[in-house]
Amino acid sequence: MIEEINDDHIKVIIHEKVSTNAYYRMHYKSRSPLHESYYWAAREAVDDITFEVAEFPVIIKYTFALKGNLLDSSNLSAMVKMIEDGFVHAGLMPDDSNQYVKYTMQGCRKCEKDEDAHCIVEIFTGNAQLIEPE
Fold first, then answer.
1. Cβ-Cβ contacts under 8 Å for 5 (sequence gap 6 or more)
2. Between 77-89 and 28-47, two packed helices, what is the crossing angle to 10 degrees?
3. Domain assignment of residue 26, given as a range
4. pTM over the 0.90 mark
5. Which of 25, 92, 128, 131 reaches 20 to 30 Å from 102, CA-CA?
6. What is the pLDDT of residues 46-74, one digit of tens each?
7. Position 76 in a domain
8. What is the count of structural domains for the chain?
């Protein structure tokens, strides 16, 4: 059974949308400030939560609310990785290896008119299994 760790979620403010394709075309000097902005946004989001993750491995669901054109789900992976790295550095989880994060899910939707770009992160624990093809 999969259980959500809390009744709430973690909200990470997205200051700059970047697709995975665009991220890997960037020079490393351009990536560094971008990575740092996600790192600090994730740390700030962790500072605002009232729960801790005590059971591993977890399943993490990332739902991005983005302005402009939406990205396909696989193009969200660079932003997912930068947020996850911020969670590790903030102490929410010891590491982002397979021992601690079983798998992630990601998707996106358009921002509402008066809404800032952000990512809602939900963390689940339990013995969830991916469905294997027959």
1. 51, 53, 55, 58, 123, 124, 125
2. 60
3. 2-126
4. no
5. 25
6. 998 888 888 899 999 999 999 999 999 99
7. yes
8. 1
